[in-house]
## 1
Amino acid sequence: MKNKLALICSLFLITLFLCALFPQILTPHGFDQQFPQALLATPSAQFWFGTDELGRDLLARILFGARVSLGCALLATAIAAFFGVLYGSLSGFAGGKTDQFLMRILDILYSIPDLLFYILLGLFLGRTFWGMLFALSALGWVNVARIVRGEILKYKEMPFIESAEALGLGGFRILIRHLIPQTTGPLTVTLLFQIPTVILAESTLSFIGLGLTPPYSSWGTLAHEGYQALRFYPHLILFPSLFIFAVIFSFQTIGNRLMEKK
Amino acid sequence: MISSLFRRLAISLTTLLAVLILTFLLLHTIPGGPFDQERVLPPEIEQNLYEKYGLQRRGDENFWVWFGKDLKSYLSYLTRGQLGPSLKYRDRDVSEMMARAIPPSAQLALYSLVLATIGGFFLGLCSARRPNGWPDRLFSFMSSLSVSLPGFVKAVILVMIFSFWLVWLPPALWEGLSYRILPVITLSATPTAYFIQLTRSGLLTQLKQDFIRTARAKGVPERTVLLKHAFKNVAQPLLTVLGPTAAGLITGSFVVETIFAIPGLGRHFVTAIIDRDYFLVMGITLFYAAILIVLNWMVDVGYLWLDPRMRKGVNRG
């Protein structure tokens, strides 16, 4: 049952990625193409998800928004993985005073409300794709670093590391070839949970009106636009929200499944 | 033990200073200033405005010189025990604005925290009593749903059902008890889910321990076993997440207060950033940081209370 659910979630994500890359499969309309004769249309055969107040196809906008939301989440997670592994492994490997100092910094960063930082950084870096991306990457590595450091500490004292030392391998080589590969399991799970966190942060940031500027849109900005017409055109907020939910749920289900398997 | 608590206090104050400088720096790097308007002001008037508030206009000088001057004048407000004037609302003090905005925010956060703690604990208890029974499955499904839904979607769903469709509860503002219900439910949903999971997994590990078997064997009632013997050991992980939970409540309040039009700190914070109201942003940021620091400190004291082993100065791992 749980395996099946995780499988369905993976299939959904793969399909979504393909559709985001090739939106022509599902809709012939462009994301910024306007249909003045069909403003705020409800879902129909021509516009599966309806249109917004400028007569743009919502399905096309959601698929285009998927590139932004998913692309941002994946890239931000990749950046978080890189810096997290770097910081965490160095901290764990160095040990002692250095480790304690580096962990103190993490404690401080951990207790900052993340959205506060994303808002300020997002404004500083500009409301573009890259600006959002770097703002959202700024704190993501903290969690990764904690996990990696814990794992490194666990394996550092093990006999196979001792034997590597006895063979005369340098510290750097031991770290790269023998210690960091040990962390892959927990790291994968952490990263799988990191992706939905970024999607959530991005959509929240966009929803309070600090996301991408038009005509570009992420799922959060689409939901933000839909919220303004909530009373009379609920389909405008329904579909973007549904996609945000489905993607976060999928990543979390897969992550949970991997964690239980371990 | 006492000295370690004081060392933490010193670290906390350093953190506060670091947050202050970092936020002030970020604010200065954002394009646009507090007195930018759609109509361009004559340079002399703008100059006077800046001078009135003890700030500098960004001229040709070095960024750091400019930043340093502004920081100095902000610090001089702080050393006089003031949070400075609002740059956007004329003749209003930041402290006065915050004093008015804190009660709604504090109520919202406190109600949500209480609801999440009590609700999460009892639902987790129900789940752990019979693992994989129907309450367990229901609650775990509900919590995975709640974690996957962004706050604004939860708010919208609740508003559509209870305000538009059933017309039971008001969709916005913060006037009386009925206005509190939807925002509090929205804000507490995610922490409740985490508390359910933590309580459940914590209790399940505890219930397998030998001392629980002994307690049961000597005829201690099941309720006492759960609430007294197992609970104290489960409370510790709950305490650990209190810090991140508080941070999450603050983050969540930005969205909840914006959607439900609650005149609280979170909403002020978002608009103050857009308005580049430097002093208001700083005031609210410092307040948030101070709360989080105090909370983390209380968590540490809570550890000592829950686990007597730490009182003897044994390092906590």
## 2
Amino acid sequence: MNTILEERKSSIRQGGDGSGMGCERGSVAGAVSQRACVYCGARVVLNPITDAFHIVHGPIGCASYTWDIRGSLTSGSERYRNSYSTDLREQDVIFGGAKKLSAAIDELAEHRNAKLVFVYATCIAGVIGDDVDAVCREAERKHDIRAIPVKAPGFSGTKSQGYRMACDALMRLILPHKSDSEIRGVNILGDFNLAGEMWIIKNYLERLGIPVVSAVTGDASYETLIKMPMAQLNLVQCAGSVNYLAKLMEAEFGTPYIKVSFFGIEDIGSSLIRTADALGDARAARLAREFIAEKEAELAPFSARYRPHLEGKRAAIFVGGGFKAISLIRQFSAMGIETVVVGTQTGQPEDYELIGQLVGSDAVILDDANPSELEQFMREKGADILVGGVKERPLAYKLGIAFCDHNHERKHALAGYEGIENFTREIHLSMNSPVRRYMEGGI
Amino acid sequence: MKKEISPIVSLNVNPCKMCMPMGSVNALCGVAGCMTVLHGSQGCATYIRRHMATHYNEPIDIASSSLTEEGTVFGGEKNLIKGIENLIKLYDPDVVGVSTTCLAETIGEDVPAMLARFRESHPDMRAKLINVTSAGYSGTQFEGFFRALRALAEQVEPNNCPNGKVNIITGQISPADTRWLKDLLSEMGIDAILLPDVSENLDGTHEAEYNRLKSGGVTLAEIAQMAGARHTIEISTFAAEEYSPARYLLDAFGVPFTRLNLPVSLRDIDALINALKSLGGTVTERLRRERGRYLDAMFDSHKYNAKVRAAVFGEPDFVYAVTGLLAENGAMPSVCATGSVCPGFADKVRAEVEPLSEFHLDAGNVIIADDEDFEHIEQYAAEYGVNLLIGSGDGRRVAERLKLPLVRCAFPIHDHIGGQRVRTLGYDGALTLLDRVTNAILSGVEETFRENLYEKYYKGNSDTKVTGNKPVEKHPCFSGCAKSSARIHLPVAPKCNIQCNYCVRKFDCPNESRPGVTSEILTPRDALAKFLDVRAQIPNLGVVGIAGPGDALADFDLTRETIRLIRQIDKDVLFCLSTNGLLLPFYAEELISLGVTHVTVTVNAVNPSIGAKIYSRAEYLGVKYNGETGAAILLANQIAGITRLVAAGIKVKVNTVMIKGINDRHIPEVMGAMKGLGCEIGNIMPLIPVVGSAFEALDMTNAHEIAAARKECEPILTQMYHCRQCRADAIGTLDNDISFKFRNAPQPAASGATTLFAVSSESGVLVDQHFGHTKAFCIYEYKNGSIRFKENRKVPQYCTGEDDDAVQSGKMAAILKTVEDCACVLSMRMGDSPRNALRAKGIQVYTTYNRIEDAVNEALTALQSRR
């Protein structure tokens, strides 16, 4: 059995060098990629909008596999936790599904008081020639609602294209709300309020006297999103998914943006200070320094207690995008853990170059890795723990390697100062679990 | 078709089914050394892997042909061939299953022809290729599973040399149940071939050496031998003949077959054992004892199981089998639903449930339906008084919203561990399931019976006992806006039967709903859904009000049904309603028996001549009465109704609209009369002169006048002062007030020198970018000993790899202009040419990888030491 396919070799960099990575291309057929699809990318970004109807226009599978599986929390409507699908059948595929879609939106507008509908057109809708744009246009006219098409057939690219489609859809939603008035406060872009993380960040900012106008898209609603154009500043967290939106907003509304990260002690501190500075708010900057000092002092004994149990271990990382991978390498390094294998599903060349700067000269860097490669390199490099998503978890366990869930399904916060504690604990409790001692030997 | 019980008929809301490729992949996991490639988009494979990985807790490797735009337009053969080749290189499988998806089928891929060409061009290939046609829109995972089995039976070269074996064909049963089945066959001495056999591949052991190709399962040689078996038992009630492997083996090779149900009910387990016995199997003593133990256990728990009102949902075979188990144990399967389209389903399931009608004399009705989604299952569960859910983990949303226990015993289970070890088959498996069902009910009783019985029977020793359990006033109108309870108004009553001069019908009644906001009218079912939505967000939702927009009693069927539906799923919530009282004598008894605890009656006058100025008409028993006659009938009925309610212990509040010059001086008399009837509280409200109403020209009663009237009436009847506050918060507004005016903090006066730094940063947190890749510099300012971010400045990207020298030097000039006021440029790396150009302008260069603030500090130190 081979482990590495010829076509995959340019996406695997050994010796800790991330430059010239073969990435941003379609997956190799038959390679057992861990990636999802365009639809997935669009759905991930838009799904946390709590009061929208998210309609999947296509056969049932895509709706069934994305129904209420993510940990985005809401302070308002629970509607986004439902799955709405036109559930196309054979007859619809033959005669077209546009009528069914149109009837579906009519029903939601008339009986469910819909104000905002996203229509995700999956693989089949385009192929059978359904004019989703026309249906949405007509529905907007007829019902005075917003019906926004997201044409995301799985075959039209990778998850990253889906992110762009989501950003375009958001622009389409907020563009009519361009306004000359300004609201004091910031938008948080690229936080999905997993396990309440957006709330944590919001609480921090409010403690500095900086209000949060809207988030993309954690705990967002139609009402909060349309205020976005009036905010003073965009904070961009998950750059891979929403950097494009920040650029569109800068061009259209003149909203400046800065990049931030609320994962890891250093990033949280600098992000808070930078936000205050970018707003020109000296009082907030002073409060930020005080707050950071207070929190770091609180965290110190905790870190001191855990560090001896973590130091010297080796980590493997396989996550969705570059932002998360880079942040994890740095967090591990702060714990005294060396990253020996690192990969992402949809990282960009700059991400890999930076990753190369962060890891040791012995590390392996992978784009769009598959289970065979992960298996080989985790073994070869002696990884003690893998950070990844749901699909990677059973592989780690089979190999006797500890695991940390860093995915959208998790139910505990990893951002903010409390996130540092959660993350550190999780790493420790998996890596040093007594269970691992029993995996060798037999009867 | 989705049944038209809700107005949403064109959408599947919360699917109780998955797609065909999911079933196909699951079935192929039961074949030794088999890998599957899904011919379609990359996402299909990944979603299915994720679903299976969480349920089975096993690595699930499924390949995709990763169809692209090009493949979709010009055909995907190239991708599929590459995919199979790569899969063979990585896994060296014995079998490659090629399952199609929606996309491949819609663009018309001729997969059998492609595979034939593949075989020709790869003569040395070891792997057997199996093609499964499984468009996601042609059926569910249930059909997909059998299609894959049928494809295996048809496409593996048969070995029809008689071998004396028995074929056992199953649908998607758990690995643990598969192990049980194999043990049973071996115990009874039956030499069998299992198709499929997921016992090892989907519930593997921990090995010293991990092998990514799963070697458990039925082998190709065994599948070939199925043609020479002496008999087939196909364990599926509803597998279509067209895709039945047993049917194929009969038609092609004359292997006779018996169709059996999943062995979950005693009857169906016995049927399997007897079938095996008739094929020469031995019924061992151990097996008899196991059966006996099951009987013993059925008896032990029969009285608890009689309390079960279950909703069972999932694949048709599963629902049918579990319904049988419940029926045998005297448990009521009140809702039986499958997401698949299954023509024979309703009749067969009904036959299981029918005998219970002679046993459960007051358990109510049963609903049996195919092609259903979870929105309907939830509505049925609420409506049919279900107390337990049985099915896959996807029922967790219904469980959460209806606060019902869920016994997770079918695929997929994402929120619990152990999906691969779920037991439902055989005497011990069925007993495991039965125990889980019984215990769910017992836990519910154990946790609530003290409180429930206390609530029901304990009427208190006047005011001598105050405990945490004692009902306190939860209604916000009566308790002065108790923070402990939230309320919801459900607009289910559109009709009204009197015409007040301050009211225009097309708007909501200004008495009970906020004026100017025209409500949607909800059906009772929609009202239930809304209640559940709100309860999910506001855990302390304690009061449900029915307050219009018309009169709650004018169309009492709607009000009654709403109360009934909500009461079924929430035993604690208080009901209140408001009415003009015209029909109160007719419905007072029913309100009492429905458990309504608070009623508001609008009484504007206790003198018909004053009333006649306020009410222009009353429609009573089909006749319209005007003037004093109408007002007199209304008043008489208000008095009779209130008297009856008060006698039954219902708390009555009186609303009175204060209309200057008409009833303002009459109000104390109204309050006095109501006190005499035993009303609890009075609420004097201002007249809102609605445009288009008879009173539109009157003055609005101002707050001062209202306050004076309340003060005057307080000694007569307790007055309500907090009405408006409650209304605004009825369901809670969730918007944060962030729109206050921009007020910037005053800046400290500038003093001292300023030093600027230009930073190359990709992440915005670190100096982590090449100078040449920088599209915008972050400008940092050092002043008075502190460093702060100032702004971003865009520049042309110096390095693109495409520009000639002239273009580059043009860009460099632009960059120099942009950073000319900076003392230093900080980048991760920088080439010699820009470095020299910057230095020539007197701008220092500092290369590092570090947090921006730390890096600027270092650069500053370097600058200062240079000076």
